[in-house]
Amino acid sequence: DIVLTQSPGTLSLSPGDRATLSCRASQSVSSSYLAWYQQKPGQAPRLLIYGASTRATGIPDRFSGSGSAAALTLTISRLEPEDFAVYYCQQYGTSPLTFGGGTKVEIK
Amino acid sequence: EVQLVQSGAEVKKPGESLKISCKGSGYNFTNYWIGWVRQMPGKGLEWMGIIHPGDSDARYSPSFQGQVTFSADKSISTVYLQWSTLKPSDTAIYYCARHRDTSSVDAFEVWGQGTMVTVSS
């Protein structure tokens, strides 16, 4: 299975800060098949980014994705109060599909 | 509005069987793959597999193959996740989620609200 390693595990930031989240795959995966999700407590995940860099419908432009499976990045340019959540990367190019372990973005 | 609505929380005993549901609306149900994702208490997301409601083609993660069964009833726009013999380790929230596009290879864009399954004696 392809293992996705996310870092850091926790990011402590303030509203207005820039957040940079990383994800690295253990094997090659086409960047066409990489995604980011946001999950808030008690809620289902929400798709933010697919194809490594394309924002999903309705996602604000403060969220951006870049990179490849070797070094995938999710950037939140200016954190809003509603952005504090857990973020997961996912590869969907090779079965079984896998998720990273998550990065929690918490209020500092 | 495109949405997936899941059945309610379940509390079961080890060894019992269970079938939970996920009903789609607001789109052509038979065109989009739907997957199941497990989230154990306090843990991350695990992909269980996908099913195509149009022809019930199901593809399982090796970790879940033989442990669960996916099925679909397109006449009522509903997919199901079923266990024949529950274990305490099946305690988790189970999400259904629809692919973003009609491809079998895609991200999950539409999510159900989750079904909490608790297995305890």
| Radius of gyration of chain A, in angstroms, nearest whole number | 13 Å
Oligomer: heterodimer
Structural class of chain A: mainly beta
Major sheet size, sense and barrel closure of chain B: 7 strands, mixed
Order of helices and strands of chain B: EEEEEEEEEEE
Strand content of chain A: over 45%
User: What series of H and E elements makes up the topology of chain A?
Assistant: EEEEEEEEEEE
Number of helices of chain B: 0
The amount of beta strand of chain B, in percent, is over 45%
State the helical fraction of chain B: under 10%
Tell me the overall shape of chain A.
globular
**How many strands, what sense, and barrel or not for the largest sheet of chain A?**
7 strands, mixed
Distance linking N and C termini of chain A = 35 Å
Provide the residue-averaged pLDDT of chain B: 97
User: How does the overall form of chain B come out from the CA principal axes?
Assistant: globular
The total count of strands of chain A amounts to: 11
